[in-house]
Amino acid sequence: MIKIEKRNDVSRSIYFLTPVLAIFLTLFGGGIIFYILGFNPIEALKFFFITPISDLYGLSELLVKATPLCLIAIGLSFCFKSNNWNIGAEGQLIFGGIVGGGVALLFYNHGGFYVLPIIILSGAIGGMLFAMIPAILKTYFNTNEILVSLMLVYVAKLLLDYLVVGPWSNPEGFNFPETRQFSESARMPILFDGLRIHAGIFITLITVFLSWLILYKTYLGFQIKVSGLSLKTAKYAGYKGKTMIIIVFMISGACAGLAGVGEITGPIGQLHRNISPDYGFTAIIVAFLGRLNPVGIIFASLIVALTYLGAETAQIFLQVPKYTGQVFQGMILFFLLGSDYLLFFKIKFLGLKKNEL
Amino acid sequence: MYKLFLRSLISVLFLLGFSLNANAEFKVGFVYVGPTGDHGWTYQHHEGRNAVEALGIKTTYVESVPEGADAERVIRQLAQSGHDLIFTTSFGYMDPTNKVAKDFPNVKFEHATGYKREHSNVSTYSARFYEGRTLLGHMAGKMTKTNTIGYIASFPIPEVIRGINAMTLAAQKVNPDIKTKIVWVFTWYDPGKESEAAQALIDQGADIIMQHTDSTAPVQVAEKAGVWSFGQASDMQRFAPKSILTSIIDDWAPYYVERSIAARDGTWKQQDTWHGLKEGMVAMAPYNSAMGSDLVKEVEQLQKDLASGKAHSFTGPIYDQKGNILVAEGAVADDGMLAGMNVYVKGVEGDIPQ
Fold this sequence. Notes:
Number of domains of chain A: 1
CATH superfamily of the largest domain in chain B: Response regulator
Structural class of chain A: mainly alpha
CATH class of the largest domain in chain B: Alpha Beta
Mean pLDDT of chain B: 90
Low-confidence stretches of chain B: 11-22
Shape of chain A: globular
Low-confidence stretches of chain A: none
Order of helices and strands of chain B: HEHEHEHEEHEHEHEHEEHEEHEEH
Number of strands of chain A: 2
Order of helices and strands of chain A: EHHHHHHHHHHHHHE
CATH architecture of chain A: Orthogonal Bundle
Oligomer: heterodimer
Helix content of chain B: 40-55%
Radius of gyration of chain A: 22 Å
CATH class of chain A: Mainly Alpha
Strand content of chain A: under 5%
Strand content of chain B: 15-25%
Number of helices of chain A: 13
Number of domains of chain B: 2
CATH architecture of the largest domain in chain B: 3-Layer(aba) Sandwich
CATH topology of the largest domain in chain B: Rossmann fold
């Protein structure tokens, strides 16, 4: 007979330590997988987690990769904290990219310091508007935001496909599905010569700080937290639920849109069909691994970014299949959810009682 | 003190990075857009890599590299980790390849299907797949009962349009009544979309299915529906043994071997390669005997003529859909026209998506 009981006394320090535990369990599990695949586990883990960041270029790439993940996850934390399940950050990222990219093409061959800020702002607004669709449908028509936001991802993808194949394709590009390369004035300034790390990282850091401010120092943040803990309490307290739902989706969408515009004006420099390798979905893992906490999310985004880089390096040096990166991401989430379960619930093994026999 | 620490840390990291690169052995790197098991495009590049490896040259590959921001890092990592020659095997790697090439003048780069050679260490290469399409057109024109040829196309780029036109022209030559119906799937590899497209074409009366996409899904759908089909990029015969008449095979091995040896021996030079049946970069899988020995003989002869230059896929007169003349009687289209082809020839249905 097994009995599962809820624990009432979960300490805060353990709550924030379990992600670390999950990472160690993932390393251990990963080592076992490498061993089974016939690699030396220590060597493989070294190529996976240390080699990619053993030089400046690697560190810069880590930040390039972590920047969009961190931005999106921060936005998602607003939604998730208040029990709103925005699964469509990928679509909001793409839509933000489309709007920002459209503006960048509009300013093709325009100089001027104002070009980039306008592009960035329009990208954020694009993502924000796109995220408002599931929010408004949820508040006024009672639709399920998970389904709506997820399905809108495909809408955004197809719209991007249409634009880069058709009206926005590079006139000198032989019909290849991509736009022109944006002008220099529309590109994120590169911070160091020869590296790809760009000014987008400052946008991310500012966003993280503002999020922390909103979540922990404002009335809105308090409302978000209360709604997440208990919707009924929030109702009794008289919070305007509908407005809040729309606001968290707007914040979340704006962050995803910023991530999209950061990618296209940063490392990519144009619009094409593959502006995001599913950052919007991976950011869900990042948000939970970071405990929906701004600082936690910074660390989580670095770790998840490292699994991407590691998968490439391990493949180059050891010819480990590339999909091990995804296996690692899956394992991190699995161990995190698993240890969360044990954190919040007690499992009691009781002997069989006589009368049950 | 803090600054000193930071500075020494950075220099140690730099040294560490360099020591990893200090490797004199000649190595060749490959960047693939799909998985090596796609049995189409990437599979054939991987076969080419195996041929290089068989020479005793060390090779590395990275598969399923997205054509976005990640490509540049992967290419750079290969360059940084001591690879002397790097093949980037998809169009989307064009700008990243050129960007990395600028920073690594001693590394040679080979970009497939692109047109930018911004630095002297970048070559481009592609195959005259359209010659294979001419052979398919000949067979399709002879084999169709409904006079409707279904064509699954990926993107409206010159390479794909060239294939559609070459096929249609050859089919018209043997059967003036044929129509080419096209479904654009806007992907190179998506078994789901490709099989839906194949089914849609069959439903519209096509009894020949051909594809300019990489999965084996269309030929499998054709096999089930009992219509003829053609494999793409690699010999797909075992996926649809009854339905497949032949496959166009991209054979990159000889080129990869030649270029690898040249790079190793120091004789590598920048070039733009466009090889076809003659050089063997385009090859045909065995012809299905179900089409009859006469037709097989005809096609084999045509294949020989295309290879020797006696026949050309684009011999005039060629008209566009509106009836304007594109290539005059007796003339053949030059490579410049072929490279930028963006109109359909007469007999193709529909418009090019713009």
